[in-house]
Fold this sequence. Notes:
Largest sheet of chain A: 10 strands, mixed
Oligomer: heterodimer
Number of strands of chain A: 27
Largest sheet of chain B: 8 strands, mixed
Structural class of chain A: alpha+beta
Number of strands of chain B: 22
Shape of chain B: globular
Shape of chain A: globular
CATH superfamily of the largest domain in chain B: PmbA/TldD superfamily
Radius of gyration of chain A: 23 Å
Distance between the termini of chain A: 58 Å
Distance between the termini of chain B: 63 Å
Number of helices of chain A: 9
Amino acid sequence: MYSFQRGFYTDVRIEDRFTTRLQLQNGQLREAKVTAEKKAFIRVYDGYMWYYASTDDVGTVQQTIQKLYAYAQPNEDIENDPIVRLYEVNRDEKLVFADRCVKNIPLGDKLKLITETDGKLKSPLCGFQTAQYLDRYSLYEFYSSKGAQLKYDFQTCGVAYGMAFTRGEDTMREQLSKARTSFGELSYTDEELKEFVSRCEDFIQNAVPVTAGSYPVVFAPIATGVFAHESFGHKSESDFMLGDEEMAKEWAIGKKVASPILTIRERGVFEGSGYVPYDDEGTAATDTYLIREGVLAGRLHSAATAAALGEKLTGNARAINCDFEPIVRMTTTYVEAGKSTFEELIAPIKHGYYIYSVKHGSGMSTFTIAPNIAYEIVDGKIGKPVKIAVITGNVFETLGLIDGVGKDKEILSFVTGGCGKMEQFPLNVGMGGPHIRVSKMNVQ
Amino acid sequence: MKTEKLVHKISNLSLNIVANQVESLRINESCKNTFRVYENGVIGVAGSIGTADWAALEETAKQNLSQGIPYPETHAEARAIDADAVHEIVGEKDFIPKMKHLLSRLAAENPDFLFGNKIQLNTTDASYENSDGERYTYRGNHFVLMLTIKHRGSANIMDESYGCESGYFDEDEICRDVKLECDAFLKGLPHVEEDEVTVIGGLEPLQYAASHFIADLYFNNASLLAGKLGQQLFNENLSVTVNRDPATQLNLPFFDAEGVVNEKYVNYIIKNGVFARLLTSKRSALQYGTENLGCASAAYNGVPDAGGDGFDVAVTAKDLSELVHGKAVYLSETSGGDMTPAGDVSLPVQTSYLYEDGKLVGKLPEYALTFNLFDALGKDFIGVTEKGIFSFGRQKHLVYRAKIVNKS
């Protein structure tokens, strides 16, 4: 396919990406965008430094490879470089979505879907609403100088209905969204739409402020997913350990890091927004336990980090598109199911909070979730809706304070937003888990 | 019928830094082309990447008029402006050796820390023209330093950062700044005793307010500011603008995505505390009968909408000494804050420093700041300076009073 020069490791990633974005605002069409982009990202490694280039003209890939060779220094021993040795040589064609490709759904059908649903979402307290349809079909090719040759696809499609509710001086915005891999699975029942509007109306009319303090908190599966991703997922991305020998000791596999009822897994095999059958270095998806029954069990790798730490590849080298190089990222990260029902989780709580939906989350040393809709828990029962700006907790303390895990695990996909790391945002990921209970978090 | 053509070329040299070393060089060059047609109250858009086939784009844009996306057709007088805002920063050939030298100095001067992330040289070449005879071209560039700083042995992904944009490169200034920050990090302090403090921050309160200035939200009663346009809502010393002045802004075209050029390149959202204008595109300005701010943004193949490029706050003081008397906290790393429906903000602070007598004294433990949006920009607003703690590049600081909670 391409002519690779001796003395270098080279790989070429090509993505042919099709996307649709339709947007209504207060019932009026605002955007109807269909995009088809084919780009390539080329990497050359000489054992000392990497050289990257992207091109939006895939006919010039060979010239771009030659241009990068001119920057690098030939290395006759490159095949024995620890990073190069690790690269898998997979040859595969895995086209999972070709027979239900969103490219083949007429634009009119996509528009009809959101127009009809948007028309059913009505509230006297809402003056502003949006409806979006988004899809993506990507056909990837990957070639390496070691002989890897891959062709695989990825697909998501989804709808997102946003409503802004106002009462007096208060405003709140909430989104009802669904992401799937087949267009036919994107509709809502009338009951689901009514329940969404009714819950938002109840919140804007009845939500009360909280008294800032430390309380037990129960997370809905979406909040659990954000927790798994932000609190520990990012810390499992091993590129932050490079060059810091003390970190390898601090993060030794087998160390107790969480409550013994907590297990967090990372897998790229689920169909959905975190589906990554091969990463952007051509490594096949794996099943990685990050925490297993409270014990540090694994971490996420690119070839560079796996080589540096003497561990196995995990299939987590990813880029948001062909403008960027792959770095260590998550795919689908989730908390494994436990044994409790939701009622059992809230039953022992005298005064705490239930986080039903989430605007965003983040995690450095402190883990933060900004809830959208939340409720107080009083004497083991769900009470009034409450206005919470953020809930926070020290990551390591919070991991140890999980004292209840539900048996109702959900793996969630997303069609808006995504994961951000340094300059690369948004990356499609999945996350999820069951309801969980944390015995103590700061609520503000 | 009115037509518009836009070209946006970007050239980017990016070094990835891992544990004080240059790990990679990335070369990106891209060109995005846009053709828009306005006719009978609707818009048709077509876009491409790479070399443009303008005849094909025009044909596609005209076909896309049938999508029926409402958009007003506006006209302007013919004029042409060309701006060359290219700075002498670092030659391409010198880029890697100079950055390697910088990193070796940073590592030697701060042996307890590991530096990572990106150093970039970016160039933009943009043009806009329309069938009314408006023709604008812009060329600019900037140097971007985005260093993550990790204390060796820390369990955190990063403990600190040093980031800024500039139109020049000065190794001595950068090294001095980073050393100030790293030295202060190593001096651990107890919490400040006060429950309310002077905060030297970035533009955090404005970031929470930003979406509430969007015209579509404002006129549909979905903004905290609804019904308050023209009122003195904020401190009389606070002015917030969209600033696209090529003399002061780095690597930002002086025209927005619809070819709007403001007088002296600046327009006011808040002027001396008065809520003056909303974030608009030409469409939303005409739809709601309000003045267009000139802040439209658009994907190369998308319909323009109100955006936030050039969001800026006017300086009120020549340096921090005019704003801070006594103690203050300097916010370095904050993450994950948000606001309640009533405008009450909670902002978790991971890394901050005590600032006293014009210098960073030491690192404070973690806590959270709370403030009401209108108070932080109103009675508790102190001022803005771009001569703050550090020397290199442009780093504006907003100074205000806020409460400290959750002292760990």
